[in-house]
Design goal:
The protein has 298 residues and is an alpha/beta fold. It has ten helices and seven strands.
């Protein structure tokens, strides 16, 4: 029920913005839009500042939107992404908020070529009220109980069964409809998440200071969550007629504790020592930026 209500709220917000946009169009020429609009959570924004206490959106200077912008003419990337953003779970920024912010900035228009969506990991799914980051704190570092599938039943981890393609598609449908109307020439792409943990494994590992890996031998729930999110995004793209960028394949073999990691550990000198933990390093984000440029904008 919560996701249905959230979807209706998002649709209402978008409809209201549409009405306001129609009235404004009577007195002002319609905006032509920016070439690229990026919508997403911390895997898009990839910036953090402990002093902000999460009350502002911090966007990293080496995040893939910034690196993509450097490959284009100045000012052609609109980036309302925000760490902690959700599709519709809240609190804080949601997909609807980000779309409306882009619209208020005149970013949506006939000149828009690409709109990307990279969201879902921070949402609540199924019957659970837990989020991924709460679950990671509760079980990844718990060597007594671990983070196997029983963590879901015990309420220590999100409901994996709720992460499906049809549900994902329904939760983003209103926003996609709005984007297609105001940016009719744009290719709308669901961005997969990078490889954090190798698919199909049952253990989790994170590097601390680049020399002391922490290993959770019972982490099937963690790995399954990333696996199911990947499948749900693919299926949602197919159901809605969108495109899917397989970011996981682009970064395969470079997850946490790999020989050449592109995901930050905790103060790991091999990646970005002050980078956001469990998120892409500048090297990992450069691969994504290049793939978007070569595949959609060159």
């Amino acid at each position: 029920m919560r996701s249905v209500v959230s979807a209706l709220c998002a649709a209402a917000a978008l409809a209201a913005a549409s009405a306001m946009g129609t009235a404004a169009a009577q007195v002002e020429p319609a905006p032509q839009g920016k070439q690229v609009i990026v919508l997403g959570d911390s895997y898009t924004a990839n910036g953090w500042d402990p002093l902000t206490l999460g009350d502002v959106c911090v966007r990293g200077a080496t995040a893939w939107p910034a690196q993509l912008g450097a490959l284009l003419e100045p000012g052609q990337v609109a980036n309302p992404s925000c760490s902690g953003a959700t599709i519709d779970s809240g609190p804080g920024f949601t997909l609807a908020h980000e779309v409306l912010q882009a619209d208020r900035e005149g970013a949506l228009g006939p000149a828009t070529k690409l709109v990307t969506l990279q969201l879902g990991l921070d949402d609540r799914w199924g019957e659970s009220t837990q989020t991924l980051w709460y679950g990671l704190q509760q079980c990844v570092f718990d060597l007594v109980r671990g983070c196997d599938l029983d963590a879901v039943e015990q309420g220590r981890y999100p409901d994996l069964n709720g992460v499906t393609g049809p549900v994902y598609a329904e939760r983003i449908r209103a926003a996609v409809t709005y984007i297609r109307y105001y940016a009719p020439a744009a290719r709308v792409v669901i961005m997969g998440y990078p490889e954090v943990l190798a698919a199909g494994t049952e253990t989790a590992c994170v590097s601390i200071l680049g020399v002391a890996p922490f290993i959770q031998p019972r982490a099937k729930a963690v790995v399954d969550y990333f696996d199911r999110m990947d499948r749900a995004q693919r299926e949602a793209a197919q159901l809605l007629g969108l495109e899917f960028l397989d970011t996981r394949a682009l970064t395969a073999g470079h997850g946490l504790c790999s020989a050449e990691p592109w995901i930050n550990g905790f103060f790991d000198w091999r990646t970005d020592i002050a980078g956001l933990p469990l998120h892409p390093s500048a090297r990992g984000d450069s691969v994504v930026a290049t793939a978007l440029y070569d595949g959609y904008l060159r």
